[in-house]
Amino acid sequence: MKQAREAREPRDPSDLLDNTAFLVMDIGRLFRVTFDARMASFGLSRSEWWLIAHLWFFEGLTQQELADLLDMTKGGLAKLIDRLETKGIVERRGQTQAGRATKRVFLTSSGKQLGFKVGNGALQLVKESEAPLDHTQVAQLHKLLRLVRKTLLQSPET
Amino acid sequence: MKTFKSKHGEELASNPAFQITEVARLYRTTFDKKMQSMRLNRSHWWLISFLVYFEGSTQQELAEVMDIGKAGLGKLVDRLEAEGLAQRMTDPVDRRLNRVSLTPKAKPIAREIRRVSEETVAMSTAGLTATELATLHKLLNKIKTRLLEQ
């Protein structure tokens, strides 16, 4: 094997720090990592709290909608839902929509108690992370992110 | 975004952190679609794009910055190594450490990934003035710093 001579530091760090996509994705990662540690006290894994949080904020989504939002394959999501269904945290309920049966996923009543903790924990972490920003800056950040999101949503590649 | 079906959803929509997660997801989806034309699957271009910037990092460091498990990262490096796109090299000082870098064969792919990434970012921020973009970065960096202190 050859020996590495490359430095440990990113080759072009200034480049990367100026990259909007990297910044946004890296913050997403830091949210997840920090939240992992907090959710471990409820005995929840990454994929479990991720699903519970989404169901808390958007109850009654279809599996397809959830797969898109959670950025998971439909197969992987189905297995995760199965696991949480066995634990009595979520349930699938059938509903007829436009003549077709669509199963939607909901938190059970004990799942909702957990959802409340997860949802509140998430909002708490967000509050902590925004502490260095004042009111105006939070509003400004929100506005700019919405603009970027809108542009990405309108792009034919998204 | 789907319509919000709960009061919690409305609370979330007005939340910058949620916007950050959403924008991150959209970037990934957009990169994914663009990379498909290069016949690279997500995990491949994902690792190569990190190696563009973090070349010579250890597997532990890469697993951390990419937010995947060490075992998963190891398999990913195996696959890229088998295709002749990545190589492991023993650290000259600490021989227990393996550092991962791109092979010469991967360099044109790395350049293309970099170009696509810059093009996507430019496209996504086209609606912002230079001042607004600088403000966005400044505010995001404040949040990032705070999270790093956790």
Provide key terms for this protein:
heterodimer; A: 158 residues; mainly alpha; Arc Repressor Mutant, subunit A; 3-stranded antiparallel β-sheet; 3 strands; disordered N terminus; B: 150 residues; 7 helices
Helix/strand layout:
The complex is a heterodimer of chains A (158) and B (150).
Chain A: H1 13-17, H2 20-39, H3 46-57, E1 61-62, H4 63-70, H5 74-86, E2 90-97, E3 100-107, H6 109-129, H7 135-154
Antiparallel strand pairs in A: 1-3, 2-3
Chain B: H1 7-13, H2 16-36, H3 42-54, E1 57-58, H4 59-66, H5 70-82, E2 86-90, E3 98-102, H6 107-124, H7 130-149
Antiparallel strand pairs in B: 1-3, 2-3
Helix pairs in contact in B: 2-6, 3-6, 4-5
**What pair of chains forms the biggest interface?**
A-B, 70 and 70 residues
User: From the structure provided, what is the oligomeric state, counting identical versus distinct chains?
Assistant: heterodimer
What is the count of DSSP helices of chain A, taking H or I runs of 4+ residues? 7
Uncertain ranges of chain A? 1-10
The strand line-up of the biggest sheet of chain A is 1-3-2
The helix-strand sequence of chain B is: HHHEHHEEHH
Distance between the termini of chain A: 41 Å
What is the structural class of chain B?
A: mainly alpha
CATH architecture of the domain at 41-118 in chain B: Orthogonal Bundle
Number of strands of chain B: 3
In percent terms, what proportion of residues of chain B is strand?
5-15%
Order of helices and strands of chain A: HHHEHHEEHH
Assigned CATH superfamily of the domain at 36-130 in chain A: Winged helix-like DNA-binding domain superfamily/Winged helix DNA-binding domain
Query: Could you say what the CATH architecture of the domain at 36-130 in chain A is?
Result: Orthogonal Bundle
> Could you name the ranges of chain B where pLDDT drops below 50 across 5 or more consecutive residues?
none
Radius of gyration of chain A: 19 Å
Helix content of chain A: 55-70%
Shape of chain B: globular
From the spread of the alpha carbons, the general shape of chain A counts as: globular
Structural class of chain A: mainly alpha
Give me the side-by-side strand order of the main sheet of chain B.
Answer: 1-3-2
